[in-house]
Design brief:
Layout (H helix, E strand, L loop, with lengths): L11 H12 L21 H8 L3 H8 L8 H10 L4 H10 L18 H9 L5 E5 L3 E5 L1 H6 L13 H7 L1 H5 L4 H18 L4 H13 L1 H7 L10 E7 L3 E12 L2 E10 L5 H12 L7 E2 L6
Antiparallel strand pairs: 1-2, 1-5, 2-6, 3-4, 4-5
């Protein structure tokens, strides 16, 4: 099967609006059943136009990609009418090119911020890693290796959490609720693709996942988006057993494209004890491995 492009129609804005319109319940939006057959789920175009106080023709032109002249006020009205979450609203503004244009970003894997590398070296009791855009793994500590996988044994191009979640069977088996974790990955990737549409590596990852995994193709077409946030994930680890961990994500002002991600458990919980056992099993602290430098 042919791999999907980031948007089959080449009209990300229109596709996103149609997807969100299809999810909006007409009755909750104040439109009772009028007996007319609905050919598609969700709001009709005229209903969205009514809620956003714009013309139906304007909605048609937006969804068909025949206009990109969208004011901030109209985008806010559309976002309100569609009940968009904050991440979805930000994504809408990015697609409409109303948000401030991002600065030029070089492609490829960057050097890890020195302060992040130093911080990883000191996090003996916390699995942690540094991620780049699209969830590429740039650096990790011994705890992250024990919890997730030996990133140093992978080629640099395969050190990507989303790719591993879909295409690596042992990594996939770590999740107690794989569909939920995988859908979150797709939403993160969709958000990042909206920010950096010309990134060849990101587009290649999207194409590979679409070609190899039918669930990815289905969820990618849903146009769900999500930015970085605190998460709670459940794992079934072959050594430590069941773990419920908080996934903390921290940005660095001087390197905004890099995230420090740390995995912690609630104090005095069974997961805290299991995580401590896992770290002891991993034989204590070790040096940080950085992509492009050296292997453990």
């Amino acid at each position: 099967m042919a791999a999907p492009e980031p948007s089959p129609s080449g009209n990300e804005l229109g596709d996103f609006l149609r997807a969100r319109r299809a999810e909006r319940d007409p009755q909750q939006a104040g439109f009772p059943d009028d007996g007319r057959l609905r050919r598609v789920p969700g709001l009709r175009r005229e209903e969205l136009a009514h809620l956003a106080h714009v013309s139906v023709d304007y909605i048609v032109r937006l969804e068909q990609g025949r206009t990109r002249r969208v004011s901030r006020a109209v985008l806010d009205a559309l976002a309100d009418a569609l009940h968009l979450a904050p991440d979805e609203r930000a994504y809408l503004f990015t697609l409409a090119e109303v948000a401030p244009a991002p600065s030029a970003r070089p492609f490829g894997r960057p050097e890890v911020a020195p302060r992040l590398r130093q911080l990883l070296d000191t996090m003996y009791d916390v699995p942690a890693m540094v991620l780049h855009r699209g969830m590429d793994v740039l650096a990790w500590n011994r705890g992250a290796t024990a919890l997730l996988t030996d990133f140093g044994a992978l080629p640099p191009a395969e050190r990507n959490l989303i790719r591993l979640t879909f295409l690596d069977a042992p990594f996939r088996a770590l999740y107690a609720d794989w569909p939920r974790a995988a859908r979150e990955c797709v939403a993160v990737l969709r958000m990042e693709a909206g920010r950096t549409p010309p990134d060849p590596a990101l587009n290649a990852l999207i194409a590979e996942l679409g070609a190899r995994d039918p669930d990815f193709r289905t969820w990618w077409a849903d146009h769900q988006v999500r930015g970085p946030r605190q998460l709670t994930k459940r794992y079934v680890h072959p050594v430590a057993g069941e773990l419920t961990l908080d996934v903390q994500q921290f940005t660095v002002d001087t390197h905004p494209e890099q995230l420090l991600v740390a995995y912690t458990a609630a104090p005095d919980s069974a997961s805290h004890e299991a995580l401590r056992f896992l770290l002891q099993w991993a034989d204590g602290p070790s040096g940080t491995t950085v992509s492009g430098d050296h292997h453990r």
